[in-house]
Amino acid sequence: MISLRNVTYSYPAMAAPALKDVSLEIPAGQFCAVVGANGAGKSTLAFAIAGFIPHFYHGRLEGDVTVDGKDTQAAPLHDLVLSVGLIFQNPFNQISGTKFTVREEIAFGLENLGIAREEMLARVEETMALVGIEELADRSPLALSGGQMQRVAIASVLAMRPKVLVLDEPTSQLDPVGSREVFTTVRALVAEGQMTVVMIEHKLEWVAVFADRVIVLSQGTVVADGEPGAILTGEGLLEQGVGQTRYTQAARRARQAGFWPADRRLPVTLEEAAAGFGEANGG
Amino acid sequence: MPSLKRDFSTLTLVLIPVAIAINIAVGQLIYTLKIPLYLDSIGTVLVGVLAGPWAGALTGLLSNLIWGLTGLNVAYAPFAAVAAVIGLLAGLFSESGWMRSLWKSVLSGLITGLVAAVISAPISAYVFGGVTGAGTDVVVAFFRTIGFGILPSSFAQGVSSDPLDKAVSFLVVWLIVRALPMRFLARFPRAENVQETGQAAA
Amino acid sequence: MSEALSLYVPRASGVHRLNPLTKLALAGFLLVAGLAAPGLWGTYLLFALGVLPLALLAQVSRELLRMSFRVVLPFAISVFLIQGFLWPGGTPVIGFGPVSLKQEGLLFATAAAGRILMVVSSFLWFALTTRPDTLMTALAQRGFPASLAYIIVSTIQIVPRFQSRAATILDAQRARGLETGGRFLQRVRAVFPLVVPLILSSLVDVEERALAIEARAFNRPGPKTSLFEIGEARWEPAARWGLLAAAIGVIAARFILYR
Question: B51 CB near a chain C CB, below 8 Å?
Fold first, then answer.
């Protein structure tokens, strides 16, 4: 579904490249998390997949980026947005500001696409049900909580029926309740309908539970790539500025003191931690 | 190479509502603090500088119409043409490189204020009977007392407030532009008019 | 609608059901006629026979009168006092000791107040009876550029947020000891620490907002559709042309008859 081959990119007026020789293949239906320190190139990767690099940010792009069969450099942006939906941090900035109800806000993208009225009405209802925001339908999109606004943003993008959803730190400005709402919504989408998700996140505990795959970026290159349990317990994480889940940190300390089974891999989720500590204690 | 299509990029399109909101929010803030200035065109000037004279003119025009139609200050609406000219001049001064230096920016503001006063006077005289309904009417009163006509008195009132107000506005925009990181500034259509080596780092 | 900056008051009136463009044409005609009305009492007549009945029909007469009064009053007071008392070489009519109201001044002030009243009330009538987004949709359906519609409607939705952000910055700076009272120069100096942070923080959002509308295919070439249809009665288009013709007629008449 998503393919990057030897991608190197520099922003305009910046000397150092933000992405250096990145190659990735992401199959359809995968929930892929991207982690890394600030400035590692995560947002740049997101923009490159969504086609905003090069169409919005310009700059120098080398290599190939193919999404949903489309070459992102050749296809125009308004065609690419049909394949890739982009969600980012600030919920307020994603509300168009041109519509007075959530229902109309979700239809905004469809209006731009010239979709017929009956189809629009159907898609809006369907998407609201999918994201679980039917009760917000007649409310003003700007009068919502952060988590609600973010879900409206997701719905607005989903209504355009992309095959890929790219989310750039979608929960960083939300409280725990809002974060959970977003994670469970996205996970449900992947489980239901072959949505491919690329999510940039710092909340590693959530990544460990929800993601199928974790990619670690450091200074513009991919330094680790695999399943969450392996990657998030890797030794080089701290130098790469990624950090570890609470469970990993706790178990690491416990292992030094002998309270974690020596041959057991460090946990990344509550269940793994409970199982490991249970084994160490109970025998 | 400046072109209308380039001036009205998506970024400009999104900048204009933000600029109008800045006009309104700052204008109201200044009024609440009883500072004897208007400062209701900073956004307009900013758009003129970053996106060119036509974008600036549009910002001014819409600002005043929205001010009027939303009931915030209905009296602003008839002066939409004046606001448009302010945006236009801001863009033209910036095109000529005047927004690069502090004192030339202030001078641009003074001149723009003067032009604004000239254009406002007939509107004020015809629509509002030559008065502003505010404290600045003492200037009008003074000139009427010494025998000036309606139009000249209105002009005198304008000259006593507009050049200073616009000079301060242009100064604020000069400060803002210098404080903006290069990476952000470079994305605007007319940024080359204000970019220089003293720019803040990204 | 509560979040947005708008005068619109919903009413179940026939006027509210009219196509927004018809209301625009009506308000425009009243504005033009108000500015071109001849004589001293032309504007007041127009207000009584034109604006007021329309406001009553739209069930917004109370709001219209209240707001018109609030806006027009300072101008009216100013114009009567200044032009009334200070008309150079005017004919005194009523004396107050050393000063007196001049006849020319009073006549001028009456005419001016009438014009202010017409300008303000036509604007207000339109704003009270028209939803901004339906106006924009109606215009867009007739070829009005989508970018302009976007600018206008998003402005009125984001302004309240900016106003509260300004208030927050004011509080924060005052808490840091910023003096906003006192002498003139001190107050002018207080402007910069208030205004510059407000503007810089607002500009941060601009790039993301541009990204967001691109992500919703805003710049896709080709016609846009609309979720809701703005209808109109069959007589409305003809009425609008009639109003336009009438407005032109009024301007022409004014120039020809009252040179």
Answer: no
